[in-house]
Each structure stands twice: as C-alpha cells, then as structure tokens.
Amino acid sequence: MTPLPHGERAVIEDSKLVGSALNPHSERGQHKARVFAQALGFKLSNWELLKQAILEALPTRPAHSTSETAFGKKYEVVIPITGPNGRTVDVRTIWQFDRLPESVQYADAPRLGDIWQRFYLLNPLPLDGGGRGWG
After folding, report:
1. How many degrees, rounded to 5, is the angle at CA 85 between CA 89 and CA 64?
2. 50-73 pLDDT tens trace
3. Residue among 59, 92, 99, 90 at smallest CA distance from 76
4. Dihedral over alpha carbons 37, 40, 43, 49 (to 10 degrees)
5. Across the strands, what pairs with 92?
6. SS3 content of the chain, % helix, strand, coil (to 5)
7. Which pTM was predicted?
8. How far apart are CA 54 and CA 127, in angstroms?
9. How far is residue 96's CA from residue 87's CA, in Å, rounded to a whole number?
10. Helices (H) and strands (E) in the chain, counts
C-alpha cells in the first residue's frame, strides 16, 4: 500500500464542501449534496465532520496516480466514510499537487480536487422528478 504523498498535509478548501459537494443550491454540486445527505447524513450543517473524517483517514489509505497535466499531478484515494447516520460508504477523492508557477516543481501539499461517492456511481438515487442522477 502506498499512501498519498504528504497526505498528512492535505488541504480541503471549505468551499469544496460548503460551496459544492454538500450544497443543495449549487448548480454543480446539488446532486452530490442530495446523495451525501441521503447515503451518509452529511449536510451543510455538519460539513466539518466530513472534512475531519477525510483528513483523518487519508494517510492510511492507498493512493493511485491517475494523471499529470499542465496544472499538476493527480491521485485517487478511496476512503470508507461513516456518516452521522451510521452508514459507511466508499467516498472517492481526487487530490492534486499543483504545479508551481513557471516551474517544473509541485506543491508539497495535496489539495482536494473532487469528491463523490462510489456507491452513487454504481447505484444512482432517483432525482426528485424520477430518472437517474449522475453527480
């Protein structure tokens, strides 16, 4: 098992969770928010619990390099998260080591780039009006 390099220094910008992944009013994150609430019980009112759970588990989980772009190196880490409702679901996280400006070097701390539940990708919950959701 190879953990995320410098995972103990990982950064989750509050806006990733509050402004998107857990925000039911976000155009981009509304479907993720609904799924996080239904599957695990995470909402805007308890977003800090999700952040804490991710950061605590991250250094112990295997990381897989996924790509390298002009913006940085990306890694995927799947973290089993137990929500306030007691249910545990695998949460897929993407971490990026940003490329430093005008350099071939990368930042020392990984930054959360994206987050979603693997359960949701395999078994989407119906949207309020029916159909399938793909947040």
Report:
1. 20
2. 999 999 999 999 999 999 999 999
3. 92
4. -170
5. 78, 116
6. 35, 30, 35
7. 0.86
8. 26
9. 28
10. 4, 4
